[in-house]
Amino acid sequence: MKKVDVAIIGAGPAGLFAAEALVGTGLKTILIDRGQDPKRRTHLAFGTGGAGAFSDGKLNLTPKIGGDPESIGRTPEEVQRYIDQIDAAFTRFGAPEKYSGEDPLALEELKKTASRYGIEFISGRQRHMGTTAVRDVVDRFYHHLLEQGIEVSLENKIERIERRDGGFVLHGREEISARYLIAAPGRAGAYWLREEALRLGIKTEYGPIDVGIRVEFPAELYTPIERVMYDAKLRVRTSTYDDMVRTFCTNPRGFVVRERYEEFSLVNGHAENDIKTENTNFALLSHIELTDPVEDTTEYGRAIAKLATTIGGGRPIIQRLKDLNQGRRSTADRLRRATITPTLTDATPGDISMALPDRVVVNLLEGLTQLNNIIPGLTADNTFLYAPEIKFYDTRYPVNRDMETHVPGFFVAGDASGHSRGIVYSAVTGMIAAEAIRKRSED
Q1: Over the stretch 275-293, which tens digit does the pLDDT of each residue have?
Q2: How many Cα neighbours within 13 Å face the side chain of 322?
Q3: Cα separation of 214 and 388, whole Å?
Q4: Fewest beta carbons within 10 Å, which of 141, 283, 346, 366?
Q5: What is the C-alpha separation between 424 and 114, in angstroms, rounded?
Q6: Is the entire prediction scored with pTM above 0.90?
C-alpha cells in the first residue's frame, strides 16, 4: 500500500490546481484519476484535465460566472484573486492570449438590448483557448507537476474510501493511504462520490439540476454577439412556469459531441482551434429544484438520462425544431431537408418531447422564442436540437471556508462538490482546499 500525506481524487482543474498549490510544501502528494494522461486519453469526462480538457477551454474570469463566493465563505474580491492566479498559470503553460468581453460599451449595449426582451445578460471577461490548445496546456501542466515531485496514479478507479487511523484508505487498482483527502472527481464522478459520502456518514444536501438540450444553428446568427462576448451567458424567465432557462457553453463554429457513461449518453459541445464548422451550438438548460417529498435531483436527472438514451436506442436524440413544434418525430429524411448539416452524426432521429418532461420542453421552447429576439433566426425550422444535456451539480456538500466537510481532513472540490460549475471555479475550490492543508502542515 502506498502511503502519502495528501491524496487527490480527480485530475481535472480542481485536482491539478490543488496539486500545484502543494508543490514545494514537503507534503507527499498523489494525483489519482481513473482515466489516462493528457495525450493518450480518449474518454470525454475521465482523464488528466477532466472534462475541461475535452471542451474548448473557455475560462470565465469573473466571480459572477461559475459559482457563488458566498457558498464557499469567500468574498468576490477573494475569489477574483484566485482567478487571476489561475489565468496566470494557464498563460505560463502556453495558453493563447485570446480574450473577449473586454469592451465595456459593447457589453453595455448588449445588456440593454437583452433587457428590452426580458433576457438577463451576465457579462464578464473570458479567455478562449480552443480544444487543441487546452490539451497542450494541460499536458505541459501535467509534466510540470511530475517534474516538481507530484506522484500520479492514472487508470486507477477508486471504488471505495475507508476511514482508518485518523486518515483515509483508498481502494482501487492501487491502494493508497493518506492523511488528507481532496475528493474532486468532477461531474462524471459526482454520483460515485455521493454514494461514498452517504456510506461514510458525510453530510450532503440536495441541490438543483439543469436539464435541457444542445441547440445547433448557422454560425452567422451568433456572430454579432460573439464579437462582444465569445460565450455570452443569457438567462430568461419562461412565461408559462416562470422557470429559469439559461444558455451554457456556447461554441461558435464548433461541434456537438456525445458523452458516454455506463448507463446513459449525454450531449455536450466544443470548438477546435483550427477546424471550424458552419454551425454554432450552445446548451439550453431548464433549472429544476425539487421539494418534499421528491428531493433527490440526482436520481431524477439519471432517470431522465436513462429514458432519453433508451428512446435513442443507446444514443442521444436529434430533432429539427420544426418537427418538435409540429408534434412529430424527426426522421433521417427530414433531417436531410435542413439547410445545415448536423455535426454529431452519432445520434438517433427522434422526438425529444418523449424523452424530457413536458414542463422542461415547454420551458425550452419558450426560452428559444425569447432568445430569438437577440439571435434572429434561432427559431428557424432548420435549427437542430439534441437531447439530453444534463448538468449534475445537484449534490452539495456543507463545507467550511477551506472546502472541508464535517469529517476532519476530508475536503471536496470541483464540480462534484456542488460549489462550482466549470474550469475556473473548480480550480478555485481545489486551490482553497490545498492551501488549507498546507497551512496545517506548517503549524
Answers
A1: 999 999 999 999 987 766 6
A2: 14
A3: 8
A4: 346
A5: 26
A6: no
